Amino acid sequence: MPVKPVLLLTDLFLFALFAAGLVYLRHVSRTPQLLANWRLALQRPAAGVAAVILGFFLLVALADSLHFRRSGPPHPASGAPTWSVETRSVLDAVLEPVASRQERSYSRPLAWLGFRKETFERDGRPVRDFPRLKFGGAHLSDPQSQWAGDAALRAAAGFLYAALGFALLALAVVAGLARSAGEPLGAALARAARGGTRYPVRAMLLTAGLLLLAIGVIASLSTGYHVLGTDRVGASVLVAAVKSVRTALVIGALTTLVVLPLAVALGVTAGYFRGWIDEAIQYLYTLLASIPDVLLIAAAVLLLQVKIDANPALFETALERADARLFFLCLILGITSFTGLCRLVRGETMKLRELEYIQAAHAFGVRAVAILARHILPNVAPIVLISTVMQFSGFVLAEAVLSYVGVGVDPKTASFGVMINTARLELAATPVIWWTLAAAFVFMFLIVLSANLFADAVRDAFDPRARLRS
After folding, report:
1. Do residues 148 and 191 lie in contact, with contact meaning Cβ atoms separated by under 8 Å?
2. How far apart are CA 429 and CA 426, in angstroms?
3. Is 344 within 8 Å of 383 (Cβ atoms)?
4. Concatenated DSSP letters for 54-75?
5. For 419, what's the count of Cα atoms within 13 Å in the CB-facing half-sphere?
6. Residue-wise over 168-199: b if at least 16 C-beta within 10 A, else e?
7. What is the pTM of this model?
8. Residue-wise pLDDT tens for the chain (470 aa)?
9. How many angstroms separate the CA atoms of 239 and 88, rounded?
10. Cα–Cα distance between 155 and 150 in angstroms, integer?
């Protein structure tokens, strides 16, 4: 079926950021000091484990950023091709078998009955009981006796397929180690098994294996059940959680992309030139820091929403409107969050400005632009990198808080904040509807914890004092 590629605002910047990351990796490979620092960071097992988890979530986000429209029936008058108004992604196509099996309302994880009692006919008589689900466990003729064995059989099948995939992955990695070290395959396998490699290959492979096993078991169970249950409208909670990964990474990455140029440019300028320039920049970020972030973000988001509602012709689909709100939320969050890093860069620049080699450059008449480019920026770069990586998880949590209070992403956009906001009322139900909050918590916990562990390793590798302590 012909498809038409669609590039959203956040898609454009996400792929641009990915390309910038590849360029930075090339720069690191050509800079011995940077390469040594990154190697030191990745030699920590916690950093290797975090890198594998973050890499998996990045692949999910990239798959959810490849958007397209399917072709529709030709125009009846002109015969020209038409395109569906629904914009989908590659991840949507992968999850379609699960997402299309929608129930009427809530259901527990792996259940075959609805969550609440309903009135319906059974054997020609009206009864009030828990109804059978339309898709979950529909293949079971006697769920009471068949459910446990069927679920175990499906989980075992998924486990075996995932274990086979892990064995092939481990064999490929060990073969690469053997080739690079010039040793037999058995010796490389034994070295990796006892943790004798330069990088934590064993920890990374075990993490990748656990991810594969979890994916295999969940995918196998999803063919007959709703693994994480369904929400109020009967949609799969698993699909909502997986789709929320892209929103979290977009918020973290694009907001960081907004913070960096503002904080670095203003901080370096204020710390180097001082005088009235320093006073003006200090007044600017002090003024912004004095306004409560939530109020400023809420006002900006509400004004943006009024603008979007007043100009519906600017966007062809609801997804493009929601994406525009997500994009501008990143801008607003970045503009209100650069003050901390700006202060840090300003203080470091003021300290560097007084060093002897900077004063010597002044004495020889070197221009200020050259001093900033050759001496100041390279020396503040490690601090900026450490702060940036550590702020990423903060921005992911900020989106959850903002969406919880109703000023975050569009309510139709899949995000952890929207899921938590939905779970606020569900937790008051009797019995408690806990699986929506649990799914959002687990996915967000994995992203934030991995980002924090990776940030700790980067900080210890790039900060000489922390490196000595560790």
Report:
1. no
2. 5
3. yes
4. HHHHHHHHHHTT-EEEEB-PPP
5. 30
6. eebeebbeebbeeeeeeeeebbebbeeeebeb
7. 0.86
8. 577 888 888 888 888 888 888 888 898 888 888 888 888 888 888 889 999 999 999 999 999 988 888 876 666 666 666 777 778 889 988 999 898 888 888 889 998 888 888 877 777 788 888 888 888 888 888 888 889 899 999 999 999 999 999 999 988 988 888 888 788 888 888 888 887 788 888 899 999 999 999 999 999 999 889 999 998 888 899 999 999 999 888 888 888 888 888 888 888 888 888 888 888 888 888 888 777 777 777 788 778 778 777 777 777 777 888 888 888 888 888 888 888 888 888 888 888 888 888 888 878 778 888 888 888 887 887 778 777 777 777 787 777 777 777 777 777 888 888 888 888 777 777 788 889 989 988 998 898 888 888 888 887 787 665 555 55
9. 14
10. 9
DSSP string across 302-370? HHHHHHHHH-GGG-SSHHHHHHHHHHHHHHHHHHTT-HHHHHHHHHHHHHHHTSHHHHHHHHTT--HHH
Domain ranges of the chain: 241-469
What CATH architecture is 241-469? Answer: Orthogonal Bundle (1.10)
1 token code pair: 């079926």
- DSSP one-letter code for 4: E
CB half-sphere exposure, 177, CA atoms < 13 A = 24
Tokens of 247: 């929103």
